[in-house]
Write a structure and sequence with these properties.
This protein has about 130 residues and is mainly alpha-helical. It has a single domain, classed as Tetracycline Repressor, domain 2 (Orthogonal Bundle). It is built from five helices and no strands.
Length: about 130
């Protein structure tokens, strides 16, 4: 996704497309995805640094999608590469995505619902940001 950034006219369209692509990539191999989700949720100290790295990379990709700009994954996420609000939005959308993936992994809902839940959360955040 870093080499082929998502396109769209709005931040909402781009972040929705980003999570659609991320979900397709994650669920393409369902057994692998379920194993990865279990490992990420395990709380295992040995896995924690990998999970932190994954979240950092996802944050940079989400911020790039919000901005509609290419991402430089060699740079750490920081105040010079993103705003506090962008990082908070990325964090919240990752939480919604992870929760939806866990629901999918437990056969609670189909794959198509994952991206829709993230899009709904992003739309609600966008609506709230215009009321400030």
């Amino acid at each position: 996704m870093a080499t082929h950034p998502v396109e769209g006219r709005s931040a909402l369209a781009r972040v929705t497309r980003f999570f659609e692509r991320a979900t397709r990539g994650m669920t393409y191999r369902p057994q692998f995805a379920r194993a990865m989700l279990r490992a990420m949720a395990s709380g295992d100290v040995q896995v924690a640094s990998k999970v932190a790295g994954f979240h950092s990379r996802m944050t940079r990709l989400i911020v790039a999608a919000l901005r509609g700009k290419p991402v430089d994954l060699s740079r750490d996420i920081s105040p010079s590469t993103s705003t506090e609000r962008e990082r908070q939005v990325a964090f919240m959308l990752q939480n919604v995505w992870f929760s939806a993936l866990v629901g999918w992994a437990g056969s609670l809902h189909p794959t198509r619902d994952i991206s829709e839940r993230v899009r709904t959360a992003a739309a609600l955040m966008h609506t709230n940001s215009t009321e400030d």
